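Look over this today:
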Amino acid sequence: QVQLVESGGGLVQAGGSLRLSCAASGRTISMFSMGWFRQIPGKERESVARMARITGTTYYADSVKGRFTISRDNAKNTVYLQMNSLKREDTAVYYCAARDDPLSSSSSEGYRYWGHGTQVTVSS
């Protein structure tokens, strides 16, 4: 069992930056592949970024590639999502998720543990 708590969301102007944090407790994040997802009302949760447990290989949605960066600090048991050059279409609730598998997944169904989400709103 692992508990995940996201923070760092808020209101930012287009072109700005935010860094989301996902603090884990209960188990060390080094045991999990991690993912960041986002969701807007009426739409399915979509994968934004993910990182494999052992290799640390990262993957990004095409819509955020080159702007977002996922990273992890095992000493702090925290995963981050650095978001730069934010656009209005990045507005969503962002969720952190953990998966008991050495490989990450772009499917939300592959993740067993979820945080409650943090709202990111990008204004023009």
Q: What stands out?
A: The radius of gyration is 13 Å. Residues 93 and 119 are 4 Å apart (CA to CA).
